Amino acid sequence: MRLILLLSLLVLSACKTTPENAKLYKTEQLACDVGIFASCTSLGNRYRLDRNTASLGENEAFELYERACDGGDSNGCDNLSSMYKQGRGTQKDYKKAFHFAQISCEKGSAQGCSNFGVFYTEGKSIQRDFVKANQLFNRACIRGAATACYNIGNSYNRSGNLKSNNTPAISYYKKACRLGLTKACSRLSAAGL
Predict the structure, then answer these.
(1) Which of 27, 80, 90, 177 could form a disulfide with 65 if both were Cys (CB 3.0 to 4.6 A apart)?
(2) How far is CA 10 from CA 5, 7, 158, 169, in A?
(3) 131 CB-side CA count, 13 A
(4) Which domains does the chain have, with CATH numbers?
(5) Which residues, other chains included, contact 177 with Cβ-Cβ below 8 Å and sequence gap of 6+?
(6) Are 159 and 188 in contact (CB under 8 A)?
(7) Is 89 left (phi over 0), alpha (psi -120 to 50) or beta?
(8) What are the tens digits of pLDDT across the range 6-64?
(9) pTM of the entire structure?
(10) ∠ CA 36-111-20 to the nearest 5 degrees?
(11) What is d(CA 70, CA 34) in angstroms, rounded to the nearest whole number?
């Protein structure tokens, strides 16, 4: 579902501003204003991805994600974490990025848990902890986050050379592939699986 939403947003971002798009912005803004916080996240995605709103873009998206997260939308918290981590629409701040990834995961976002796990593998704002990372990736994979499944596959496939007897890695790569992650499909294909 999230993949469909992201693809839709990418298609919309390539389009010129039309009266129909203007109506979508207005409708989502109204929904956000009355407390439908998923609409704040969706509107933030539009501002962030739409080339025609470059003058507002990331700053507006950041504010909308903040509002969405404050209102309890887990995807808004995940996007807010990403903005802090990349320094987009705000100053780069790994501690805040970590904080909002944790909130996103706790609120049930599969991608939020996956991103939270990445912090534990990077060790930039906290001490590296691959066990904790894999626990978070597993939680996210069960919830349908393809990148999390791929990351667990990588943890079982540390050599980089996927062998047919590496059942756990293959299982996670297959799930990531089924969820639409092409690099997982490529990894399986390259190994002749």
Answers:
(1) 80
(2) 9, 5, 34, 31
(3) 0
(4) 2-144 (1.25.40.10), 146-193 (no CATH)
(5) 184, 185, 188
(6) no
(7) left
(8) 334 433 444 445 556 677 778 888 888 888 888 889 888 888 877 555 556 788 889 99
(9) 0.78
(10) 45
(11) 14
